[in-house]
Write a structure and sequence with these properties.
The protein is about 40% helix and about 15% strand. About 50% of the residues are buried. By secondary structure, the chain is α/β, with parallel strands linked by helices. It is built from 15 helices and 14 strands. The protein has two domains: about 170 residues, Aspartate Aminotransferase, domain 1 (Alpha-Beta Complex), CATH 3.90.1150.10; about 240 residues, Type I PLP-dependent aspartate aminotransferase-like (Major domain) (Aspartate Aminotransferase, domain 2), CATH 3.40.640.10. Bound molecules: pyridoxal-5'-phosphate.
Length: about 425
């Protein structure tokens, strides 16, 4: 650390006295790359400035929501206007209806939604609904897939947990995970086995898992999940909190032409404010209170600021936006691959997401991801930060490409990456 980072150092010291680890969400502490957190002063577009005035090209984008970059003028305008009209009512508004209509028109599996304030709440509620609808208790999830910090799903979770090296969370009752079955990703035999008892309520899956680094499904795997769940009376839930509205207008389900029974959404949905949702067919969703017997609620659910930001964000995501996002993603992935040369690195990408695995062999599941050289990744990532590039401070994440990233940002990033690769081993 240089003298010029004095304000960050002082803030971090203060933060650690009043916030565990100095942060409000673990990955921000940057412990897995062995450095102190970045305290942000402000950001516009992809230009992020810390409290010491250091500037970074931001490839984290608040971990997914900022597909239009920071402080997009149209989103700011929508939020300002909404705030002037009142920040929360605890009563329905027109814009919630518009957002629900927009989502239902985009996402094939969704006829109705219920909004929440976080992805965690949305996946928790989706599972409750699935259990009620099927009269079954078991849930199947994949190792390395993350669905928020729901008790029953904190079994072998990826993302923050894997990063922090905690095998499972303390404080989660054994009874809460007793009904959770964890299977390896891309493993058909394991799925067959898990569903064979016809006693599973729901199989929940990130269709493009990005919380162990990006590990796309092998050809036909999502179709296989659809067939198997249908055959065994199990509901199929796609957690599209990251992939929804990022990999294409209607998420991974539209792109892969596999329609789940339920969909969990978040991140981009809130346009940078706290909002998430789960959705399904009308028949399933009408099991929710006040119509049905499944209780679910939230003081700030459908918050007008978040809903305005989300709707504005979605309406800017037309076909042209996805073409551009895909071009930028491909340019970045290709550039990083070239910069790595013949070093043991695998660059994986899908529209809007790129992971640089420090692995000599392809990564197909969580075990492969965990076998990556995380020490080399840490050195590479610190090297990038030192050169003004903010990439996710963990091997088990993805770079989030936005529409605010221009060719010059890709070029600067690739140049810095080449230099950082030099010092990674
Ligand atoms: C971020 C994330 C969640 C949790 O959302 P929060 O808003 O952080 O609670 C759930 N599922 C996936 C796939 C995510 O990436």
């Amino acid at each position: 650390m240089s003298l010029t980072d004095a304000r960050s150092a002082e803030l971090y010291a203060r933060a650690r006295r009043v916030l565990p680890g100095g942060v409000n969400s673990p990955v921000r502490a940057m412990r897995s790359i062995g450095r102190d957190p970045l305290f942000v002063e402000r950001a516009t577009g992809v230009d992020l400035v810390d409290v010491d005035g250091n500037r970074f090209i931001d490839w984290v984008g608040s971990w997914g929501p900022l597909i239009h970059g920071h402080a997009h003028p149209k989103i700011l305008e929508a939020v300002h206007a909404a705030a002037e009209a009142g920040t929360t009512f605890g009563a329905p508004t027109m814009v919630e209806v518009e957002l629900a209509e927009e989502i239902a028109s985009r996402v094939p599996s969704v006829e109705m939604i219920r909004m929440t304030s976080s992805g965690t709440e949305a996946s928790m509620s989706a599972i409750r609904l699935a259990r009620a609808a099927t009269g079954r208790e078991k849930v199947v999830k994949f190792a390395g897939h993350y669905h928020g910090h729901v008790d029953g799903l904190l079994a072998d979770a990826g993302s923050g947990l894997a990063t922090q090296g905690i095998p499972a969370s303390a404080g989660v009752l054994a009874s809460a995970t007793a009904a959770t079955v964890v299977v390896p990703w891309n493993d058909e035999e394991a799925v067959r086995e898990a569903l064979s008892g016809d006693d599973v309520a729901v199989l929940i899956v990130e269709p493009y898992p990005a919380n162990m680094g990006l590990v796309p499904p092998q050809d036909g795997f999502l179709q296989f999940l659809r067939e198997q769940t249908e055959a065994h009376g199990t509901l199929l839930a796609f957690d599209e909190v990251i992939s929804g509205f990022r990999v294409g207008p209607g998420g991974a389900q539209e792109r892969e032409d596999v329609t789940p029974d339920m969909t969990v959404m978040g991140k981009i949905l809130g346009g940078g404010l706290p909002a998430a949702a789960f959705g399904a067919s009308r028949e399933l969703m009408e099991r929710l209170a006040p119509l049905g017997d499944v209780y679910q609620a939230g003081t700030l659910s459908g918050n007008p600021l978040a809903v305005h930001a989300g709707l504005t964000s979605l309406r800017m995501l037309d076909d042209d936006a996805y073409l551009r996002l895909n071009e930028t993603t491909t340019a970045l992935a290709t550039g990083l691959r070239e910069a790595a040369g013949d070093r043991p690195v695998e660059v994986v990408s899908v529209t809007g997401l790129v992971t640089v695995f420090f692995s000599a062999t392809p990564v197909r599941n969580y075990d492969d991801a965990k076998a990556c050289d995380t020490e080399a990744y840490a050195r590479w990532c610190r090297g990038l930060l030192a050169r003004g590039i903010y990439a996710p401070p963990s091997q088990f994440e993805a770079l989030f490409v936005s529409l605010a990233h221009e060719p010059e940002h890709v070029a600067q990033t690739v140049e810095a990456a080449a230099a950082a690769f030099e010092s990674a081993w």
